[in-house]
Amino acid sequence: MQANSRAYFLLIVVVSFALLGAALYMQYVEGYQPCPLCIMQRFAFLGIGLFSLLAAIAQNTRTLWQGLGMLSGVAGIAVAGYHVSLLLNPKASCGIDPLENWVNALPTAKLLPQVFYSDGLCTAPLPPLFGLSIPAWSLIWLVILTLTLAVGLIRREKNYR
């Protein structure tokens, strides 16, 4: 699949939204309550998905949307990395703090509270999924999606030279 093809971006969209769906499944079926950092990671996946969708649709501004998708991914990597570090250092906690109040004050928490409202703890012990914590899986997927967008941008730029 070429890095400038519509299918390339649509695959990223499908993966991003599937991961959001998995988060909602874990919340509503498995009963895991999202913490503020989980919600911020959802924003990163949403950003990657939406910007990749716009890149698939608009060829003229594809580089802009691809870059914004990568920026969403980098922000998500930072949040997920911090979340993983909290789990590795259980003495630290984001707990109920101003971050939760800030996340819950965002318009998205009011418009779609089922998706973007936070009421969990960042250090809550959840069972591992295939040996890794959920934030670790989030970090892995954010890195994969961000690198996929970056490699695609690099390849496309080489083709235009």
TrEMBL record:
Disulfide bonds: 35-38
Pfam families: DsbB
Compartments reported by the entry: Cell inner membrane; Cell membrane
InterPro entries with a match to the protein in the record: DiS_bond_form_DsbB/BdbC, Disulphide_bond_form_DsbB, DsbB, DsbB-like_sf
Membrane topology: Multi-pass membrane protein
An example Gene Ontology CC term for this record: plasma membrane
UniProt topological domain (Periplasmic) ranges: 26-43, 82-136
A GO MF term: electron transfer activity
Keywords: Cell inner membrane, Cell membrane, Chaperone, Disulfide bond, Electron transport, Membrane, Oxidoreductase, Redox-active center, Transmembrane, Transmembrane helix, Transport
Gene Ontology biological process: protein folding
Cytoplasmic face residues: 1-8, 156-161
Residue ranges crossing the lipid bilayer per the database entry: 7-27, 39-57, 64-84, 134-154
HAMAP family for the chain: DsbB
Role of this protein: Required for disulfide bond formation in some periplasmic proteins. Acts by oxidizing the DsbA protein.
Family: Belongs to the DsbB family.
PANTHER family named in the record: DISULFIDE BOND FORMATION PROTEIN B
The name this protein goes by in its record: Disulfide bond formation protein B
Organism of provenance: Cupriavidus pauculus
